[in-house]
Amino acid sequence: MRSFTLALATALPFCSAQLHLEAKKAGLKYFGAATDSPGQRERAGLEASYAQYDAILRDNNEFGQTTPTNGQKWLFTEPEQGVFNFTEGDIVTSIAQENGLIQRCHALVWHSQLAPWVESTNWTADALRDVIVNHVTKVMEHYKGKCYAWDVVNEALNEDGTYRESVFYQTLGEEYLKLAFSTAAKVDPDVKLYYNDYNLESPGNKSEGAVRIVKLLKDSGIKIDGVGLQAHHVASRPPTLDQQIAVIQSYAALGVEVAYTELDVRVELPLNSTSLEWQKQAYKNAVGACVQSPACVGITIWDFYDPFSWVPAVFPGEGNALLWFEDFSKHPAYYGAIEALKNKTGGHTCKPKARRSRDAVRSNRLYE
Ligand code: 9MR
User: Fold this and answer.
1) Beta-strand pair 232-234/226-229
2) What is the CATH number of domain 13-63+231-362?
3) Arithmetic mean of pLDDT, 113-117
4) 305: which residues sit within 8 A by CB, 6+ positions away?
5) Backbone dihedral angles phi then psi of residue 271, each to the nearest 5 degrees
6) Which residues line ligand 1 (CB under 6 A)?
7) Which of 61, 140, 164, 179 could make an SS bond with 187 (beta carbons 3.0 to 4.6 A apart)?
């Protein structure tokens, strides 16, 4: 494997490309990375890395877009009924505005990271309608003019395509989706309204569920502009390029746009050259599916720096799902993403520029 890599390396030109720059050349609106407000992302022992992290996030050639990973969620924005707090969300909005980044806003109606009062109350249908309308209205009014898109409803579907039994669905049935989207459209007619979920990246029961949601809204005359593919993939079994192109087409056929909203590709630990190569292919195929699909407007990775990823806490034994290792060297997958972007423009495949760091050698990484 190593001699193969070295042989390839001598034949290829160096990469000087960066993600957002190449994404724009390939016709996308953006390549972005979600980020957390400092209070949420802090990890003991990593304080020294913040400056380097901030510089990469603010490099407009690397990233042209950001999403707050947590700060705009219900738990933070309306922790008590009628009491709104935008402190966490505003931190990321300021980063976006100061650095000219497009902001995707996330997420208005979601069963998770919901303020406890919403779940612990036994609502009448009317009372919960008022709660949804008030939440969507107040949060969207606060961020009006500052978001390219809103994830209006997040993760409403089970894997088999049926509706998740959230407090919203149990009380209102699918009416809650109509209410959330129709309210959102009234508050800000200029922002793109998305349905966002995971495992929507290949055709199947769940993607058909998303198609049904788009149709439900459109048939009722309610505005929906996009389907967000979270794309939390697994390096050993990601969707193929063709599956992703086909499923994007199934959404596009309904007249909505598509975005990769939370892309990451988790790897079983410890890393090895095979799993890093799988990860590279998985990134390349996700990015490639977007650039090859006219309906796909952009790609967001769910943070870019491995230590700030949600993965290890939720999937023990897995990690390194993003594009920058802890020592800030880049994953092979970074170059997979660049290759996919350049393929669109006829650019050449390239080899990574940096030399392998001592750390990388120690952990048997083949790139950098
Ligand atoms: O990255 C987010 C993490 O910090 C939170 O602890 C977690 C709580 O569920 O949410 C993570 O982001 C999620 C996103 O908002 C919706 N799709 C799944 C993401 C990963 O869990």
Assistant:
1) unpaired
2) 3.20.20.80
3) 96
4) 49, 53, 56, 322, 324, 326, 328
5) -65, 150
6) 69-70, 112-113, 230, 262, 310
7) 140
